[in-house]
Amino acid sequence: MKKETILAIITAIIAALFFYAAYSKLMDYDKSRDQMNNQIFPSLISSILTWLIPTIEIILMLGLLFPFTRIKALWASLALLILFSSYIGLIMTGIFGRIPCSCGGILENMSYGKHLIFNLFFILIAIVGLGIENNKWLNLLNRKERANQFR
Amino acid sequence: MNKLNIALKSVNKIGLFAIALVAFAAMAFTPAKSNSVAQKYGYDQANNQWVLIEGKTMDNSGNPAPGTYRCDASSETCSGLFSTPPTSGSSIPDSGTTLDGDFSLN
User: Fold this and answer.
1) Shortest CA distance to A91 belongs to which of A80, A102, A78, A82?
2) In this predicted model, what pLDDT tens digit does every residue of A3-55 receive, in sequence order?
């Protein structure tokens, strides 16, 4: 399979994930707000995150669809997924004294452990995507260097 | 305009297909909202949770009847109506349906 096709599939999977995440939050905004209030953040931060997270997810979804924004969107996706996973990891340690709900569409039926594995899978494919993308640029640079040598 | 055309032509078609598929599945598997009547819940401050008190009556007397609840004078939230059952203690009742007081079951 061509690298470009693999990259298109990887970005499609991550874009679909962000679409679903944003869709499930925006379609039931009241529930999403309640679930965010159930998290460990102060109410002001919770109210900001309620709309900020789906907004970021939509921007990343769009970024992943276009070739000229794909690398930046992949890096940002990786950062966001790592941030989410770190939060889940911290929750699982019990550092905050209570375990808030593991919310968000189909994910609300998952335990935090399963949620973490789910996120790690997407982190892994984002890393693979970035690896392929960077290799592609590296190959392009090498080809240019070789072309310059023969001039 | 030309740039927009180029951008639209270069869009990840697999990505568009995946998003359309997820949108279709999400809509297809989302149950329709039932036209349920709002139910009354009392806010149990000690356990930070909402307790269903639909059908129960308030009794703030010194000798309350069993199966009732009380809302002692306080600026805290005692009870509220929920069109959809509360998911947590921080769930917010339907607008304008809250009653102040310290909630407890008799």
Assistant:
1) A102
2) 889 999 999 999 999 999 999 888 878 667 766 766 777 777 888 998 999 99
Domain count, chain A: 1
Q: Which positions 71-90 of B are in contact with A (Cβ < 8 Å)?
A: 84, 86-90
Q: A34 at the B interface (CB within 8 A)?
A: yes
Domain extent, residue A9, equals: 3-149
**Cα–Cα distance, A62 to A79 (Å, whole number):** 16
* Residue pLDDT, tens place only, A109-133: 677 888 889 999 999 999 999 999 8
- Interface predicted TM-score of the whole assembly (ipTM), two decimals: 0.78
Cβ of A34 and B87 within 8 Å?
A: yes
Please report residues of B whose CB lies closer than 8 A to that of A105.
26
Nearest-CA distance B56 → chain A (Å): 26
Cα gap A37→A144, rounded to integer Å: 54
Quote the radius of gyration of chain A (alpha carbons, Å): 19
